[in-house]
Amino acid sequence: MTASLPQILNLEEFLQHPYLEESPAWEYMDGVAIQKPMPKTRHSILQKRLLVEVDNHSDDYTALPELRCTFANRSIVPDIAVIAWNRIQINEVGEPEDNFTQAPDWSIEILSPNQKANRVIDNLLHCLRHGCKLGWMLDPDDYSILIFAPQQELNVCRGGQQLRVLEGVDLILTAEQVFGWLKVGNLYLAPDD
């Protein structure tokens, strides 16, 4: 179940909210703050494995868990935000700025039990409208991955169908491989591992 705060007038007020960074994360859209559901075991396994796979297959991008992305009057926290290294702002001591104020290059969401699919889809579409190149929504109950790309029809991938990834991420995966990671004791790895 997700929690929501009373109506918040604007994004700046939301970003000042004292409970903003508690776990699970809070998101802001259309004047309302909503807390994401707490991840469960399957969600966490998929998130961990995807982070490792993307990072191990690209020097141009980094995969970051639960990074707050605040842009275009919305503040969202994708399960995984894949961002080109050259888009990360660096401070005067050579470290990344704490606040990321753009859409990620690739936004990956993993549906949790009781999470509203339309809210997740809305966030993915918002990302695409503001420069995101790719979105995934994993449904662990359906063993499917919904692929979002700018100006392209949605694509539902299941089984052995190869998943689209960003150019610059040298990773070949299928939905079957991704959901195979949920089988206890299964060392189902990407083909080149």
Automatic annotation (TrEMBL):
SUPFAM superfamilies: Restriction endonuclease-like. The keyword Nuclease applies. GO terms for molecular function: endonuclease activity. CDD domains: DUF820-like. Residues 11-171 form the Putative restriction endonuclease domain. InterPro entries: Nuclease_put_TT1808, Restrct_endonuc-II-like, Uma2. It holds the Pfam family Uma2. Keywords: Endonuclease, Hydrolase, Nuclease. Signal peptide: none annotated. It comes from the Bacteria. This is Uma2 family endonuclease. It comes from Atlanticothrix silvestris CENA357.
